[in-house]
Queue: 2 jobs
Job 1
Amino acid sequence: MTVKIGFIVGSLRTASYNKKVAEKFAELLPADFEAVFLEIGNLPLYNEDLDVDGKVPVEWQAFRDQAAALDGFFFFTPEYNRSVPAALKNALDVGSRPYGASVWGGKPALVVSVSPGAISGFGANHHLRQSLVFLDMPTLQQPEAYIGGINNLIDDNGDIAEGTVNFFRTIISKYVDFYNKLKA
């Protein structure tokens, strides 16, 4: 049985470093794990007035249906003003509603923050973890995945430095162990 892991990338930029890192993580997953990328850039901002029969935006429903069918999640986030991008927070809100129908509960998560800066998205990483606690998503604690100086770790061909890729392998291996323990 294939474990389907939702990949949510907080950066909407076409040439996003987070997207490049997420794509590399997807390549490195073991054969029995599959990455499923979820689109978040098309989600209208959450507004409870729209979350009633006949008004729910089709994008929200499609996102909820897709996320509900997944077994776990990898979140890739840049840091905007010491927090997560609005699109990522909106996706969490859309998936957690309506009250009592959250698509997130009990699904193992991984948080990876990617930044050209030396702080490596530390603030965003921890803000996201705070939300995941409330959403009842057990989150891999170690190794912490802060990828700083990413612009120096990717060459002109878009290839990520081998030492960094080896770190990604370690993170994935720990997540797989974490996932299997939780789902045993």
Job 2
Amino acid sequence: MARTAEDVLADAVRQLAPDAAANPLVPLLASGEAPREAVAAFALEQRHIIDGDRRSFLHLAERASDGRPAAAAFFTGLAQGESLALEELGALTAACGLDEEAVRAYEPRAGCQAYPAYVAWLALGAGPADVVVALTANFAAWGGYCAAVGRALREHYGFDDRACGFFDFFAEPDPAVGEAALAAVREGLADGALREPSAHRYGRLLQEYELMFWQTLAG
């Protein structure tokens, strides 16, 4: 029986899921033991990550526009989502006591910016359908982290709903993004462009760079 898009994505999410103990910062936040400075650094790093990822997604959408409309739509939607996430990030930055001068003066850390650098590398030459699979697996882990951090900031750090809006934005899977991913994978299966070994390699590296981000913040 031919593999379906649902099979492909479910297998990627399951096989590429990071070890529950691999992220050192989220458990510290969940227990209230992490310093507030780590939350501020998260917000400052994310400003750079969002900007980079948005441009990468737009480039992937442009590359896919020639013959792969479903993949192009998926990446266009992600780019739009990054713009919305940036708006939510402002409240988190303010809750951390960071003004515009502090944001401009901040120097990002290599360990945190390795993730968007790799996304940019994928945008330059990886097969769009393969990247859809890799990102979908990573988003599953990222969403879980965001849900946990949003709860922690409310329970232990006194952040209100507005300040936690960035984490809430990513915490729950977006059905529209899920449907767009399925459509893009179906397209890749239909035209033979999807290569699951490559998709899993990309996804594994994305997960490792994701963990590097959290490990760097944890110090």
